[in-house]
Every structure is written in C-alpha cells, then in structure tokens.
Amino acid sequence: MQARYLPASTLTGLLGEWTGGPGPAYRVLAERLRLLIADGRIMPGSRLPSERELTEALGVSRTTVASAYRELRDSGYLTSRRGSGSVTALPSKVEPELGRHHAPGIDTEGLYDFTCAAPSAVPGISTAVASAALELPLHLATPGYHPQGLPVLRAEIAAAYCERGLPTTADQIIVTAGALAATSIAVRATTQIGDRVLTESPTHPNSVDAIRRSGCRVVAVPMSPGGWDLPLLEATIRQTAPRAAWLVADFQNPTGFLMPAADRQRLARAFARARTTAIVDETLFELSLDGQEMPPPFALYDPDGVITVGSVSKSFWGGLRIGWMRVPAALVARVLDARASLDLGAPVLEQLVVADLLRKRSTLLPERRASLARRRDALAAAVASELPSWKFRLPAGGLSLWCELPEPVGSSLVGVAQRNGALLVAGSRFSPDGGLESFIRLPFTLEEDALRDGVHRLAVSYNSLTDAPARRTGVMIA
Asked: Which residues pair with 325 in a beta bridge?
C-alpha cells in the first residue's frame, strides 16, 4: 500500500508552537514529531515532507530538519523507503495476539486483518500517559495493590453512570484488567460449577470460553433477524432457570443491534423473576455512530440484580487493558472475594491514564466516532459493490458488519482468503453451539483504503469458492 503524503502545510499546523523548548532546536522538533506519531495524530505509514519542503515551511535551517529526521530514524519513528521518502513508523513491530483465530505464529505483515474488532489508539494517549507519569510518584510509597481500583478512577467511572441516570457510588466500582477479566470475575462470583449461564447467539466467543472455563453450562438463545427474540428469551429463562446471564445490549457483538429501552425493561423483569444475575457488557456503549440517543443503562431497570461490565478497549485503546464492573452494593464483597483468586488489581499507571482520558472523553470521542462512521460506510459500500450477494444491515454503532452469505462456506472462505492476503474469523466461531457457517464478521477498524482493498481480496476468494463472476477483472492477487 502506498504511503499517504502529509503536506508541509498540514504538518506545520499539527506542530503548532513547537519552538522554545529546552535543548537544541532539532531535538525539540524531533520530540514534537515523535509525540504526534506516537499519539496517532500522524498515522504510521505517512510520508513526511522532504527536508527542503519542511525547512521552507517552518522557516528554520536545513540542518535542524535533517537532524530531527535523523533522530526519528535512530529511534525507530521514521524509515527511508526508495521512492517514498521519509515514512513514519512505530519503533517496534506490534504483533497481534492471533490465538485461536489464526494458525500459530502467522505474521500479519502485508495482510488485511479482519479478525480484530478493535481500533488503534485515539490521539491523546501519549499526552495522558505523560500526565499520569507526573502523578505516579504520589502512589510509589504504597504497595501498589488496589483490588477494587484507584479511588480517582472509580470516582470518574461512577460519575459517568450518574450522568446516564444510574445512581452509582465509587464503592460500587471494581476496576479490572479489561472487560474479559471483569466477565470472568463476575461469572465466578455469581455461579457455581454446573450452573447454567444464558447467552446470545451469535456472541463474543472469548467471553463464552471464559464462562465455560468457570465450569458453567452455556444456554445460547439465537438472535432473530431483527434483534433479540424477547418471547424466546423469556421462555428460555423460565425453562432453564439460569443462575446468570451474559449479554451485550449496546451494539451487540457481532450483529450490531442496539436493544431498545422497552426491551431492556422487559428482559430485566424476566431475570429478576427468575433470580438470574444479569452480567451486561457495555464495552461498545460509547461507539454510537449516527448521533442517536442511547437507551438508559440496562442496570437502571434492576439496580440490585445487574452487574455492568465496561472497558476503554474499544473507545480509547485496547493496549491500556483497563475495564471495570458496576456491582450492586450487596454483591461487592462477593465479587472482591472471587477476584482475589484471579489477580490482585489492575496496573496503577494505566488506571491513572484512563482516569485522565475519561475526564477528556467529551473532546476525544467525537473524532473517534466520526472516523469509525467513515470506515463503516466505506466497508459497507465496498461489500455492496464487490459482494452484492452478501446481506447485511448497516449498524448504528459498534465496530463490525455481520454479513450473511448465500452459501454455508464461512470456514472454507477463511482458508482461501488467507492465501489471498485477508484474515477472517468464521461465523461459526461466534456461535456457542456451532453452526452459523453462512456468516462472516467484518470489522471496520482498518483505514478506508485498506478496507476497500481487503474486501476486493475477499471477493476474489469468495468467487473462487462459488464460481461466481468477479465484479472487477484484470486485478491479480499476488
């Protein structure tokens, strides 16, 4: 893929008032550029202006710019490519955790990865880390173990729930190392080996794995073409009496459905009648892409019977590994006891970073949503053009399209697509009970050009499986 050129005028605007810092001018310029790259405001893979162009735009000496570029090359933030000039990079190659979704050890370099529904970091992470580092010395005199989480972070999370109409105190918040850890702890706290736990189908496979590793039996209720089948859910709750339920009410993963307020109230009542503890994942809550008003939190309809799971992995960055639970006051001690056998708390520095990000979310998240909306629309247009037989509905939020194929070839497509340079997860992986071979989840977290190119490779792969004519000809996949 060709490096995207960053004009000198644009780069000058991003740099702002960069002069006047301590040390030589070239080091000040290099540090400012490094922060812009690390923060995501200059994307990795961008081609910077030539030394001459930037020298003229900034009004500095050629030596200053040349030395700054050299500093960036030496630290791994800039590479020189023949025919491309100086291209931004991150200092070390980040390998995705491939796990069960890929062959062991596979390298995603040069491949279009549709396996991970998680975007890159929002601009502002590096600034938040720097701010948190200034606060860290205040905590170094303590042992550093905080099983419930830092008070400053718990207060920010509790305040966010109060703003949404759900009264919450900081004592009800338990900070964890991500949403999956929160799910595991919540299941362990509310169930015993052999208990039934209700889930949706399709749903997030890693969470289902966590439930099963707790020794529980999963009871999966299929989603309908329009969302949640409330009569079927109510009947299943009556018939199976699940001890707990795990579901995603906000832009359900992978279908993208948003549960209406009336359905939340009805389902919460069904859980309360059965004395089923609902564990509701709100990881995607912040990713409303069409500006619609969000329904109230599920827990509002049963504050004493619902554990709410949250995270910054999708909204800010998965690399922070910070999640949390909002727990009914009567269950806090039980959840903390369950947590003690799994870990002793989340990292202090990352908690300080997240507290800073949450204070700034009203300024950081609008651009995140706008970017994802553009990528969603680009992916939807590409699928409609290249794969017109695939069916999907445009989700109002979240991170992926859930596509229905005319034939049950999902697992076969995964292997063919990989050989053509695109990585997929078969729809069957999202089914607790198997099946769903006619479905594929396509995240829209890559850049728009990469999404279009990746879909073309999927189309070539799919057409080779089904003998369907390609929408475009004359393009060879290497």
From this structure: 174, 309
Which residue type sits at 102? H
Q: Quick one: which H or E segment has residue 384?
A: helix 361-386
Phi, psi of 91 (to 5 degrees): -65, -20
Is residue 452 within 8 A of residue 432, CB to CB? The reply is no
Q: How far is the C-alpha of 100 from the C-alpha of 72, rounded, in Å?
A: 36
For 196, list phi and psi in degrees, rounded to 5: -90, 140
DSSP state of 50: P
Q: How far is CA 132 from the centre of its chain?
A: 22
pLDDT in tens, 346-393: 999 999 999 999 999 999 999 999 999 999 999 999 999 999 999 999
Bridge-partner residues for 439, per DSSP?
A: 404
Query: Which residues are CB-contacts of 472 (< 8 A; sequence separation ≥ 6)?
Result: 386, 456, 459
Q: Is the peptide bond before 151 cis (omega within 30 degrees of 0)?
A: no
Q: What are phi and psi of 124, to 5 degrees?
A: 115, -10
Q: What is the pLDDT of residues 284-316, one digit of tens each?
A: 999 999 999 999 999 999 999 999 999 999 999
Nearest to 325 by CA among 301, 372, 334: 334
Considering the entire predicted model, what is its pTM? 0.77
State the CB neighbour count (10 A cutoff) for residue 465: 15
* Alpha-carbon gap, residue 248 to 141, rounded angstroms: 40
Closest CA to 345 of 475, 228, 222, 178: 178
Distances from the Cα of 88 to the Cα of 10, 62, 117, angstroms: 15, 19, 24
Question: What DSSP element (H or E) covers 252?
Answer: none
Work out the burial of residue 208: count CB atoms within 10 Å of its CB; fewer than 13 is exposed, 13-18 middle, 19 or more buried: buried
Contact by Cβ (8 Å): 58, 19: no
